[in-house]
Design goal:
Blueprint lengths: L9 H22 L7 E5 L5 H9 L4 E4 L2 H7 L1 H6 L4 E4 L8 H7 L2 E5 L2 H14 L4 E7 L9 E2 L3 H11 L4 E5 L9 H13 L4 E3 L6 H6 L4 E4 L1 H4 L6
Parallel strand pairs: 1-2, 1-9, 2-3, 3-4, 4-5, 5-6, 5-7, 7-8
Helix pairs in contact: 1-2, 5-6
Length: 232
């Protein structure tokens, strides 16, 4: 349990953050993309306030979390100190948490089914908040993973926009572990283009350079910044 006091690990975290930023800048240069056009989300789920404070003090402002309650518990005082922080929901979302998620997050990366789209639309109407939304696509057709099937993605994007009025800005995917991610990134890029979407949330610690080369506009990097994830 964290005490909130400075940790000896904090200087290491700042160095890791700088190293990832350097990798991202080099990847953008290689792809011919301005680094300002690729958003770097530091995946901070399960990490405590000392680590988050260190990242914030080092200049990081975009953070990824997977649980509404965790955000409610640890982020309010930090956001008071750093009001320009942007919180991204990167995990699956239950429909009964839609209103809480719309209140807590600024970007939602895991819209993946009509019931959730409907719940989010109601929540946005109720709260007056409209977080940017990414439709999650299960590019590997993995039974254990969230996301709309590739074949159903165009129709679902259209439903989210036309039926539910969601502010869909792009697509997100998590390629199968251990394989070549490039075909999955290319599939996501083609699907986004077909739906007229400009943003692609793809790429994590091990493969974000490849994602940038394939058109990523948001990368989600956790372990390379914060080290191994603590047990939930």
């Amino acid at each position: 349990m964290s005490t909130g006091h400075p940790s000896t690990a904090e200087p290491d975290l700042a160095a890791r953050l700088a190293a990832v930023t350097g990798r991202l800048h080099r990847a953008c240069a290689a792809a011919g993309v301005p680094s300002r056009d690729v958003r770097f989300v530091a995946v901070s789920k399960f990490h405590g306030p000392p680590a988050l404070s260190a990242a914030l003090e080092a200049g990081q402002r975009d953070f990824g979390e997977s649980r509404v309650q965790e955000v409610q518990n640890k982020w309010p005082p930090l956001r008071e100190r750093y009001p320009d922080t942007v919180l991204h929901l990167i995990g699956p979302l239950q429909t009964n948490k839609a209103t809480a998620a719309v209140r807590a997050f600024d970007v939602l990366h895991s819209v993946d089914r009509p019931r959730l789209a409907a719940a989010l639309a109601t929540a946005m109407e109720r709260t007056g908040r409209r977080p940017d939304c990414f439709v999650q696509v299960n590019t590997g057709d993995e039974a254990h993973k969230s996301g709309v099937p590739v074949a159903g993605a165009p129709a679902f994007v259209k439903e989210c926009v036309d039926t539910y009025g969601l502010p869909v800005v792009g697509l997100m995917c998590i390629p199968p572990y251990g394989g070549d991610p490039r075909p999955h990134f290319r599939t996501l890029r083609a699907l986004a283009a077909a739906s007229g979407l400009r943003q692609l949330s793809m790429g994590m610690s091990a493969d974000f350079e490849t994602a940038v080369a394939e058109g990523a506009t948001t990368v989600r990097v956790g372990e390379a910044v914060f080290g191994p994830r603590p047990r939930a």
